[in-house]
Predict the 3D structure of the following.
Amino acid sequence: MRTGAQILVDQLKIQGVGQVSCVPGESYLAVLDALHDSGIGITVCRQEGGAAITAEADGKLTGRPGVCFVTRGPGATNASAGVHIAQQDSTPMVLFVGQIARWMRGRDAFQEVDYRAVFGSLAKWAVEIDDPARVPEVVSRAFHVAMSGRPGPVVVALPEDMLTETAEAVDAARVEVARPAPLMADVTAALSALQGAERPLVIAGGSRWSEAAVADLVTLSERMNLPVAVSFRRQTLFPGDHPNYAGDLGVGGDPNLVAYAKSADVVLLLGGRFSEMPSQGYTVFDIPVPKQRLIHVHPGPEELGRVYQPAQAICCAAPEFLSAALAEAPAGPDRGALLAERAEALARRRAIPAQPIGPLAMGAVMEHLNAMLPDDAVICNGAGNYATWVHRFYRFTRWGTQLAPTSGSMGYGVPAAVAAARAGRLGVAFAGDGCFLMHGQEFATAVQYDLPILVIVVDNGMYGTIRMHQERDYPGRVSGTQLKNPDFAAYARAFGGHGERVERTEEFGPALERAMASGKPAILHLLIDPESLTVDRTLSQIRDGS
């Protein structure tokens, strides 16, 4: 006989969960007690949104569900930000939510929430466990659902009286997701189309990748002489220093690459959905039938034909397709001129722009980071104009070194860097001044666990992306986008970390060295001229329409 809470924690151990994030709550005290001597590490966060993001980032890094515990009501609704990220980003995640006692249901009890109704459209599955004997069954199914097909979040509500009730239960086994292989006839047809293409393009995206799959994609591209682009914030799916790399199709994508994608005759969309951001507002492919011959490989059958009607739909994950393709792939035709053209366009795109207005140049900051950060550092960021510097100029060369939400959620960088550090990696978080204060309190979590994350706060005194759109659509009518910020370096020191203000280009390199040598969680507070609003255009140019 075990309590429901003990059965639950035993299932997590069976599933290989080594770390959970949480904000403690009285609704699941029994679980906290069962975790006490379980061997599972606990990362106690300062807000449930940060805890959920930490779990989502762990799911991105490992490919198995990140696990988060929060309390009922406001704890659950705070955590919904992380659930939405997991849904949009196709990340496996399980959110466990403490719930009122079963006998109180329907009375609008303290912090009562109907989790099936609240999370029904955000999660792949939302369920409440009534019987402790069924905990192994439900947890097993939760892990299956979170990882299968198109991965995503699962929400499991835990009534507090169920957690303390005892029951006999047979443990489930470790979940290993089915990995269907493609039909070889489909693989052969896809390879034949790529072989005969004059302007082929591979676009890598989505989840369920592995380091081995990335290596297989490199081999396939080399054997068949294929240019490879990556989808929005999926820049570790192909090494950025490879001669066949064509760039990333992200927000404000390279016009040259966008034009090539539109003019391609055969496109292999590998693993991703090619949604609004990478498709440049659904303009690269015609809907419903693209002009390009589209070969869409995706593990979720519901995504094949959902927006784009492909010439060929192949229902499997990228690793299985690539393994099968390499077994049959022929040597490709000579595409030296085409690949050189793509490489030249990428080099122009990556050229650091001229010194912007103001004494601190973000281009030089990125050059320092490329030179000084180890190639296995995990680069984390939320949303904002500052992120364009990261995506455009940081050289991602290794698998598993980017944590960034395709959902465009602000505040993601710091809790994601905490997740990376908990996994033994160097987490480097980029954040705008508006972005940082959405989940910057998780810097305290880094200090609590002695995690030497590096946070680079890019401060221009505004919600920059919104101001950019505002100046474009309503020039000169500034409303709701100005910010008055604290000294973020002092903020870092107040928590017990290392903090420095950087106001000039020449100050950044030495400050970065001191931050990394400190052995502490560190914040570098970069003061940027508000005129330097984007990589290519100043605030005044946007306002004037020039």
Q: What stands out?
A: The chain has three domains: 2-167, 184-348, 352-544.
